[in-house]
Backbone:
């Protein structure tokens, strides 16, 4: 027997939340984890306020004074580049009386002025000006009124910006990401310069628990069943051949992160993997891109970067879907049965117009809220959430598929068990959010 969420000081007093019976090959998740407000409150504290969380991409703020506003772990945040070139996250709440200091989605600014009483701050968060400052006593300290930063730190890896809200955090971002670094690198290396977040985003909501979205995103088992319409359409358009199945292979990356990887070959990808769908006339350009990638990265790495894709999950709430387009998606629970999601499209800055068009088309038609795939998933996940209303009679969900197999395939739910084990550990134990154990699956 292994993890459960049922002990520890101030913990959950109910039944085992995760039953991990490795001897018998049984893995069960108690359905209250999807519906209980007390468990959600614990998750906010023990998971979201403890782990490194994705906040943005450096390409969104290339110049000093550039900023984007986000909600990260339920907090309003300004992600910005200071005049020193450094990326910072500033909590977007005026230290005077609380108003949002920045209300735009993005801009460039020399100062941030609060619209309520006119206090202003520098791009680095220091107090810049206070109307009628002489009215304050000697006890008033400008330094104490600077815009606050996430106490556990702000750091980037290959342009992906993360923040940490744990005041006691001692885990570096690199240690936290562990083996996921290699796959973030595979995405970053698709550009000779920089990968950039393309204009626009997809903010939407789903009436289900956020952990259902985690399970679903790396779930190879459901793909050909729930998304039959999409694969039929792709086959009809000559965009892919799924007759041999999807052949995903799952890999645990440590600290709850996982990937289900695959060759992008049946799908193709705007970066270097040509299929007839892209048009005969673009074939020489793809050969040229591949040749340049080999020059830049060497044969082995170029092959990996150009022809291997996958769906990368970084615990607890980042999913990078790198198959047809490259979609970066993060989410946060508002209630046990409701989550907010935002997705962005990522592409090489040097990409030419025809491939960029295919990428954006893939971003919209593949996994967007108005595309072929996400509505199927939303319907499935919202129906699970409704099914949990019968949790008194049907207490547990089964995540055991393939558990006793020596070599687990992409339909075997390994990556879900990787997620749930880390989830149960963090819910149960205090201490760092990284176990440094690498790929214990
Ligand atoms: Fe799906």
Residues:
């Amino acid at each position: 027997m292994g993890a459960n969420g049922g002990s520890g000081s101030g913990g959950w007093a109910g039944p085992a939340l995760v039953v991990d019976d490795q001897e018998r090959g049984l893995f069960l998740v108690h359905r209250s984890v999807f519906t209980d407000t007390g468990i959600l409150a614990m998750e906010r504290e023990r998971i979201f306020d403890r782990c490194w969380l994705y906040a943005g991409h450096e390409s969104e703020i290339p110049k000093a004074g550039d900023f984007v506003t986000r909600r990260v772990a339920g907090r309003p945040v300004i992600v910005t580049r200071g005049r020193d070139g450094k990326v910072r996250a500033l909590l977007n709440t005026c230290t005077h009386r609380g108003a949002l200091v920045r209300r735009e989605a993005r801009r460039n600014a020399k100062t941030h002025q609060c619209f309520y009483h006119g206090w202003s701050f520098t791009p680095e968060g220091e107090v810049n000006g206070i109307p009628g400052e002489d009215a304050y006593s000697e006890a008033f300290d400008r330094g104490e009124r600077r815009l606050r930063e996430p106490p556990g730190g702000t750091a980037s890896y290959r342009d992906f910006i993360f923040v940490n809200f744990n005041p006691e955090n001692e885990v570096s971002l690199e240690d936290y990401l562990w083996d996921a670094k290699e796959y973030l690198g595979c995405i970053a290396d698709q550009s000779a310069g920089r990968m950039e977040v393309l204009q626009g985003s997809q903010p939407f909501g789903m009436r289900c628990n956020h952990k259902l979205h985690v399970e679903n995103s790396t779930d190879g088992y459901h793909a050909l069943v729930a998304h039959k319409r999409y694969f039929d359409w792709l086959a009809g358009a000559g965009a892919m051949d799924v007759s041999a199945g999807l052949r995903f292979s799952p890999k645990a990356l440590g600290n709850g992160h996982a990937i289900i990887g695959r060759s992008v070959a049946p799908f193709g990808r705007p970066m270097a993997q040509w299929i007839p769908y892209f048009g005969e006339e673009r074939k020489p350009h793809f050969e040229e891109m591949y040749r340049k990638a080999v020059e830049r990265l060497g044969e082995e790495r170029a092959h990996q970067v150009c022809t291997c894709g996958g769906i990368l999950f970084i615990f607890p709430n980042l999913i990078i879907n790198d198959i047809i387009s490259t979609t970066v998606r993060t989410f946060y629970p508002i209630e046990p049965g409701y989550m907010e999601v935002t997705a962005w499209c990522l592409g090489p800055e040097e990409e030419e117009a025809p491939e960029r068009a295919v990428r954006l088309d893939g971003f919209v038609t593949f996994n967007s809220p108005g595309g072929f795939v996400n509505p199927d998933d939303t319907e499935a996940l919202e129906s699970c959430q409704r099914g949990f209303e019968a949790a008194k009679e049907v207490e547990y969900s089964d995540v055991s598929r393939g558990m006793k197999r020596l070599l687990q395939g992409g339909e075997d739910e390994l990556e879900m068990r990787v997620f749930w084990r880390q989830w149960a550990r963090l819910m149960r134990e205090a201490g760092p959010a990284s176990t440094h154990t690498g790929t214990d699956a």
User: Anything to note?
Assistant: Confidence is low (pLDDT under 50) at residues 1-9. The pocket of fe (ii) ion is lined by residues 216, 222-223, 226-227, 373, 376-377 (CB under 6 Å).
